[in-house]
Amino acid sequence: MLKDITLGQYYPVKSFVHDLDPRVKIILTIAFIVAVFLGSSLWAMIPITAFILLSAKAANLPVKLLLKGIKPLRIILIFTFLLNLFFSAGETVLLQVWKIRVTQEGLMLAIRFSMRLVFLVTGASLLTLTTQPVVLTDGLERLMSPLARIGFPAHELAMMMSIALRFIPTLLEEADKIMKAQMARGADFESGNLLQRARAMVPLLVPLFVSAFRRAGDLAMAMEARCYHGGEGRTRLRVLKITHKDYVACAAVAALIVICVIIG
Amino acid sequence: MAITIEHLYHVYQQGSPFQSDALEDIDFTIENGDLLALIGHTGSGKSTLAQHLNGLLKPTSGRVLVDGQNINAKEADRKALRQRVGLLFQYAEYQLFEETVYKDIAFGPKNQGLTGKELDHRVRRAFARVHLPQEVLEKSPFELSGGQMRRVALAGVVAMEPEVLVLDEPIAGLDPKGRDELMEVISDLHRGGVTIVLISHNMDDVARIATRVAVLDKGRLAMLGTPREIFSRGDELEAMGLDVPQTVQLCRKLRAGGVDMPDCLTNEEVCAAILAARGRTAHA
Fold first, then answer.
1. Which domain, by its residues, includes A207?
2. pLDDT in tens, B165-177
3. Which of A97, A184, A211, B253 is 20 to 30 Å from A115 at the Cα level?
4. 0.80 exceeded by pTM
């Protein structure tokens, strides 16, 4: 039941996009978001959609998987669409029922905003689906490292992120076990009203927190026992390297930005 | 109360690339009054089987019958079942959550719907069975030692007064004293009429207290019999990565050294056999 949370989880296949340097991928994702905001007309959606489909192909990902990432957002999407549809100023009235008007401008805006949301989510999930969390934090750390000179804790932040990601499956497993143990003692997690259900979570949450703190303490001790002292002078197991593939990817995104600017 | 397991299969994450067969064609009966030891190498499916006994896992195929009733049938009352078949998980001390030991032990019986005097009676009786000092009852479970916490967790399951008690490695990680005390509690419960399924890696304990032994190997039931039958097949057990009790190891070494003696399970038996063998040599 708890193991169904797979949103944006790494999809282990070999592909052109998987091989890209994480730093490049992070920057390109940001550039892609910029492109999405540059292309403000409906026409700009064609190259952007084409780009996403091509990237999915190059990443060896089933398009269905990308679409699955949008599903949790459907309520926000519908809300955005309706809000823009009914409450935008415009002249060309398409439909009027009592005081509610649907204008052509409103319709355009509604489509544009909801499509933008879809693009943003698929773009971001392209990054997380093709990059292992550890590699991703590695890339983030390197990108943030210039900021370390002005006292920004880049290494510490990246380390915290990778530890957090590392422990998600462990804690899920633990939660599953504790849940079963309490069910063996007659606990009921499934029935009752909201308040009863919230109260039923106590026998799950207390042991889970206790064990999370215990694990954190153990991990800190184990790291110290192996002389961990932060990022200073630390070498790395995976040395990141820019290859010709990264240049190809950069060129593709640059082309997308240019097209979006031209179409406007 | 007997639990019959019929052609039980369990596959984890079926249909995904991570699919794995945990149990294959398990078929045997746990009789009323048994103290059945379930032994097997790590990953042999012991814990998976344990969770099938009170319906926490659903079989991929096959059936589990408690007193002839299929526990996974639609009309089966799983809550009532879990009260009849208690399960203590591995490292059960991590499931404690209440402010006091008393309240934690009361959690199970309370879920059964007990209140007032009856609840109090149950809690105190279960607490008495695990032999902890009286003042522990009002302490926070998080102030106790690991061994004490384990016994409080056991009391939490015992308080539901199950007819069958499934214990998943109850002594793992305890010191020798804690281990002996806990084994004593388990023997007591068995003598009191509770059917017990004990998962253990400690063959000495198994030899000492089990009435029957089931050996799992790679998800299959490899052997089933009395401890004496099972531990006489030491070579097969070793091939599965399992041990025989130290008493049996000693007997085998002595036999290899030319002393005529049978496989013995307890220290007393070993002594008697050695004395008997010496007697024979002295007379010869």
1. 146-225
2. 999 999 988 888 8
3. A97
4. no
